[in-house]
């Protein structure tokens, strides 16, 4: 695939103020329930939407997204210096996002018809997107599987089984339409999937050298405990993951934050908090209903952090005729 040059000018990196927060994960229902209570208690006592020592991301641009009709961007990735996205209302396309002055344009780039997933569903509801070694990987919330699509539009294959049983054993997927929301490719044979909320969690799918392709190992963990503070009625969540040479990052929509994390053997460690609440709650960029967060997709390159907002058709506070979603571009902290 012929990729154009970098999509944005280089910027000077911003500072980082790390903090360390270790969170134990468990698959038992008792602990999951306790975590929900603790998260709720923390929200009641520590209102404000972010911790006191959170780093505020430096905004470079906030761009309304034109192009695709009824665009509801839900997954984001960078490939060859170009931004790509999926929309949860468009089952047959991987879209390209081009930056054009004071707006961004989202258009279908690869169109496809996914093979039968083994699940009867009205929509595939793609909620996450990643790219590695010439291929795209899409997370279907309705099918609970990952779809492989080569960058030339071929190679269509569901490469993971349905993860529903493993998730249920860990107490995940307790809320309708709050299931799979993002993925990170930790290695060619190791995928990490994010469960949105109620409780939120992480699901690993991996293959050993001797494993058959259709029989990977699957394990899930509830990870509802957090040191982030969230205002009522928000609950802690995941809406996307990003992995690169700098580590693993989680998009926590209801905290309006990107969280660098360590993840090992079922243990989640929150390392820092990069807040963008000062942007999405600014009346210039905010939408009419701010009860819950709207950040759905996360991607990064060496210099920038990209976040897409899915406003579900809501109007902006500053202009009640503008119902477009937005692409936020921030300087990436060191």
Radius of gyration: 19 Å
Amount of beta strand: 35-45%
List how many beta strands DSSP finds: 23
Tally of domains: 1
Please, what is the oligomeric state? Answer: single chain
**Mean of pLDDT:** 87
Q: What percent of the residues sit in helical stretches (DSSP H or I)?
A: under 10%
User: What's the shape?
Assistant: globular
CATH fold-type name: Neuraminidase
For the biggest sheet, the summary is:
8 strands, mixed
CATH domain class = Mainly Beta
What structural category characterises the helix and strand content? Answer: mainly beta
In the CATH hierarchy, the architecture is 6 Propeller
Between the first and last Cα atoms, what is the distance in angstroms?
31 Å
Q: Could you spell the SSE succession in H and E letters?
A: EHEEEEEEEEEEHEEEEEEEEEHEEE
User: Ranges with pLDDT <50 over ≥5 residues?
Assistant: 1-48
Number of helices: 3
Structure description:
The two termini are 31 Å apart. The chain has three helices and 23 strands. The chain is globular and about 55 Å long. The longest helix has 17 residues, at 29-45. The chain has an eight-stranded mixed β-sheet with strand order 4-5-6-7-3-23-22-21, with no helix packed on it. Strands 1, 2, 16, 17, 18, 19 and 20 form a seven-stranded mixed β-sheet that branches. It has a four-stranded antiparallel β-sheet with strand order 8-9-10-11, with no helix packed on it. Strand 5 and strand 6 (93-100) form a beta hairpin. The chain has helices spanning 29-45, 164-169, 277-280; strands spanning 21-24, 55-56, 59-67, 73-79, 82-87, 93-100, 103-111, 126-132, 135-140, 145-150, 157-158, 180-187, 190-195, 201-206, 217-222, 240-244, 247-252, 257-264, 267-270, 274-275, 295-300, 304-309, 326-331. With 334 residues, the chain is mainly beta.
């Amino acid at each position: 695939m012929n990729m154009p040059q970098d999509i944005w000018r280089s910027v000077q990196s911003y500072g980082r103020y790390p903090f360390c927060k270790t969170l134990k994960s468990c698959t038992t229902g008792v602990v999951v329930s306790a975590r929900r209570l603790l998260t709720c208690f923390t929200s009641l006592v520590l209102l404000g939407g972010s911790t006191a020592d959170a780093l505020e991301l430096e905004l470079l641009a906030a761009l309304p997204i034109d192009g695709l009709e009824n665009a509801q961007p839900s997954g984001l990735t960078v490939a060859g210096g170009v931004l790509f996205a999926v929309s949860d209302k468009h089952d047959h396309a991987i879209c390209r996002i081009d930056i054009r002055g004071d707006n961004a344009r989202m258009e279908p780039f690869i169109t496809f018809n996914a093979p039968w997933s083994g699940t009867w569903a009205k929509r595939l509801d793609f909620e996450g997107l990643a790219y590695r070694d010439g291929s795209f990987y899409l997370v279907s919330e309705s099918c609970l599987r990952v779809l492989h699509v080569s960058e030339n539009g071929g190679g269509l294959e569901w490469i993971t089984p349905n993860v529903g049983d493993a998730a249920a054993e860990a107490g995940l997927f307790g809320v309708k339409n709050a299931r799979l929301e993002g993925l990170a490719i930790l290695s060619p044979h190791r995928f990490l999937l994010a469960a949105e909320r109620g409780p939120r969690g992480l699901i690993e799918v991996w293959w050993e050298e001797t494993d058959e392709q259709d029989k990977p190992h699957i394990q899930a963990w509830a990870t509802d405990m957090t040191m982030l503070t969230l205002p009522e009625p928000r609950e802690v969540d995941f809406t996307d993951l990003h992995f690169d040479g700098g580590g693993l990052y989680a998009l926590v929509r209801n905290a309006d934050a990107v969280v660098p994390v360590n993840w090992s053997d079922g243990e989640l460690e929150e390392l820092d908090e990069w807040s963008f609440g000062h942007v999405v709650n600014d009346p210039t960029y905010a939408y009419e209903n701010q009860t819950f967060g709207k950040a759905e997709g996360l991607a990064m390159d060496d210099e920038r952090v990209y976040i897409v907002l899915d406003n579900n058709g809501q109007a902006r506070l500053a202009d009640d005729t503008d119902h477009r979603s937005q692409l936020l571009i921030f300087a990436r902290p060191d």
